[in-house]
Amino acid sequence: MAYFPPIPVIRRNHIIARLRQSNAVSKETAVTLSEAGVINPNAFRKITELLCKRGILIQTGNRYYLGIR
């Protein structure tokens, strides 16, 4: 039996990696998920909301930046 990582973990890691690559680390450098290169940014909206709730992402309008270093 093969092991497949759960979709939410893959999605979380993808969002974090893309924002890190985009250097979105402050309010001034915040980007939209599309600008960061996140595949289908409107999918899995609950995952993005959970990341914001946990302080991993900070949302300013429709832009995001990493709340972790």
- Taking pLDDT < 50 over at least 5 consecutive residues as the criterion, the unreliable ranges are none
Largest sheet: 2 strands, antiparallel
Q: How much of the sequence is in beta strands?
A: 5-15%
Number of strands: 2
Short description:
With about 70 residues, this protein is an alpha+beta fold. The chain is built from 3 helices and 2 strands.
Task: Provide a descriptive summary of the structure in words.
This protein is of the alpha+beta class and 69 residues long. It is built from 3 helices and 2 strands; from the N terminus they run αααββ. The protein is elongated.
Chain-wise SSE layout:
Blueprint: H1 7-21, H2 33-36, H3 45-53, E1 57-60, E2 63-66
Antiparallel strand pairs: 1-2
What descriptors fit this protein?
69 residues, alpha+beta, 41% helix, elongated
